[in-house]
User: Fold this.
Amino acid sequence: MTRRALLLVAVLAVASVVVCVVPFEVGGLSLVGAVLLACVLPGCAVTAALFASGTLGGLARTTLSLGLSLALAAIGAVLLNLAPGGIQAGTWALLLGGVTILGCIGASLRGPRYGGTEAGAARGTVGSPRELLVSTVLLALAAILAVGAVGLSATTAQDLNQASFTQFWLLPTKREDELVVGIRNADERPLEGRLVVLAGETQLEERNLIHLEPGRTLEFDIDVGDVASNVPVVAVLYRLDDPTTPHRTARLWLP
Assistant:
């Protein structure tokens, strides 16, 4: 790939990141940018960095670029899912755009593989049996990467869509001397735990055996009539399988 083509790929990557991050009134721009970042630009840049011009056939280079793009998009989604901020359109676009820019830089620095010129690089492709074998292997590898990337993306999306969590709240009621603690089990397994409610150093409530089936909700009224003002009330929920680590914590300051 020539340096002019690498510059074009880099410019397209920057433009795609911009249209994905900055909201535009023109419809479809963000979709075009997302498609370029997910299916075209990262794989094109990385392929150019790994293989000099003339070392791959057109079909092998195109398929490998597509497979690498999909694989990088899927791997990036998994890594962002592990990050504190999770998967967001802006961070996803910035990650793939950064990979594209790094690939363009690497391809520009390595230069042609044969003789230091594009003409010399072209001498490497003569349609020899070795070239055909290399192209076939790379084509198969790209196909495997593409299928694996799509499967990984689908699995990750399915896992993300599965609601698996515990809701826990501590709220005031209409009565000034009463609070309510609530638990909702949105996990796939029953919740067995222990509830402790404290006002400063004073224990207001303790429930040692809480069993809550998936999809069910429990609420407990907590009497705070004897608690002084400006004292934090803290409710802590422990799981019985990990009795020393708070599973959920809620805090409320009394007026």
